[in-house]
Amino acid sequence: MGFTIVIDMKKSVNTIMQNSSGKYLVQMRDGSEGICNPLKWNFFGGGLTEDEDPIVGAVRETKEELNIYAGSEYFNLVGELRPKDDRAVYVVHYNKPVEWSDITVQEGAGAGYFTKDELFRIAITDATKMLIEKYL
Q1: Residue 111 forms beta bridges with which residues?
Q2: Which of 20, 22, 86, 87 is in the most buried spot, having the most CB atoms within 10 Å?
Q3: In this structure, is residue 5 part of a structural domain?
């Protein structure tokens, strides 16, 4: 008698964006009840549907969170993180500079631009720390 094991893996995408000075754009997560890592900083992005391609998810999340309408040609998949056994975070790079005038922050408690060194001095999520150490 055979059986199938179904793995419920949570998948998300984080997009690395920089301004023309090379600083990284990150989001402060909001403090709403029930949100994980409230008021910590992380790269913009979000959850993926079960079969959603990370690039497609990055395009969608960038539109939803920053009001940037960009085609998939501006995004490159650079890797994947496994902060927990049941979790996959795809890391995508947006290959155009993003300035304040280009965005309207539509989610989270705020946004900011930071150097790599500055990112380690603010309250970041564990996954963000892993992303910085591996991909920046």
Answers
A1: 27
A2: 87
A3: no
- What's the whole-model pTM score? 0.90
| Beta strand pairing call for 44-47 and 75-81 | unpaired
CA 126 to chain centre: 12
What digits encode the pLDDT tens for the residues 115-128?
A: 999 999 999 999 99
In a domain, 108, yes or no: yes
Instruction: Please report, for residues 32, 33, 122, the alpha-carbon distance to residue 114 in angstroms, rounded to integers and kept in the order given.
Output: 24, 27, 9
Q: How far is CA 81 from each of CA 92, 100, 115, 134, rounded to the nearest angstrom? A: 11, 28, 21, 9
* Closest-CA residue to 11 (of 108, 68, 77): 77
95 Rama class: left (phi>0) / alpha (psi -120 to 50) / beta: alpha
